[in-house]
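Supplementary Note 3. Input sequence used for the single-chain structure prediction.
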Amino acid sequence: MIGWLAGILLLISSAFANPVGGAVGKLVCEAGPQTSMKIVLKSIATLYNVFPIKIGGITVMKWSDLEDLDLTGKVPVCVCMTPLPRVGIKISLWEPIAIMEPVKIPWCTPLLPIPGGLVGKVPFNALALGADSHKANAGNAQTELRSLQVHYYRYLPWAILELFMDFVCLETRNPFDMAYMTEIDPLWQSDLLASILGPEAILVANPIAQFACVVDAVTSQFGFSLDPLWWCFGSWGSAYPMSENINLDAPQAAAGLVARMLFKLHRELVLWGSFGKAGLCGRYPMPIMMKSQYGIFPIYPVAYPKRFPIGRSSFVLWGFGKEVPILNKHNQDWMIYRKRDCCAF
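The predicted structure, written as discrete structure tokens, is reproduced below.
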């Protein structure tokens, strides 16, 4: 039954694809055990992004100038009523939870130790999907429109290393899982179908709402972007449509689609809220993602050493050399960190 359903979804997604001729044929999917090992080692080498760690509101461990925010208040103790009434101490940290791959070549999976990824191992020719394309705007000028597929892996390095297994504030189950591939999601291939998940986009499709994103772009350069402006991704465009198409340059296009995928997974209730006072006693539904909950950074093919907030411009160092056309390194992997506040007892 699952196989039939997957086959149907694959056919539907191919029907809504935007072919771009032989452009993808020139690209190479660099995937295999060596690439996979590079990504895993880099994810482990950058685990210092978990800092700062606060206990009872006091910073006990920090690392360089990693950014942080505190929405739990100044009282060091907390009270939870589930599963049993208990009093505990507030603990906060940044938890690594996932790796995302924005790729030009559909089914190219650098994180998986499979030579060539899944390219050619699927039931139909998907090479027309995912490549850069160009569309004319209203003035008939050519506007660059990037279209990428995104893979979401549940990835818990602490659990893989079998460290802190008894720490209540960290997830330890199912340390690795390929949780989502947009290639089999027809809503990702079409701006029109994406509106099924985000009908509220019509509320912010006006000059006033879009002008507000200028403010969000400025704040994201110096700190976290503004959560009340949920439709703005700082310098990375908009959360809408929740599809593959984004009008940005190469490094920011990948970042924008990673953020858009996080937004989409929250809307689908795959990801939940984990910080602030509401998160002290456990994760909670967050259908409209709060951007400040996440810190992300690229780890392949060229790594950036520390996480940064959603929306920060690639001109602030992190975008340098992240796509290497000469070496055919167009596919990327990004590490996802989530702010975690919890009540430890």
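Residues 2-344 form one domain. Residues 1-25, 130-142 have pLDDT under 50 and may be disordered.
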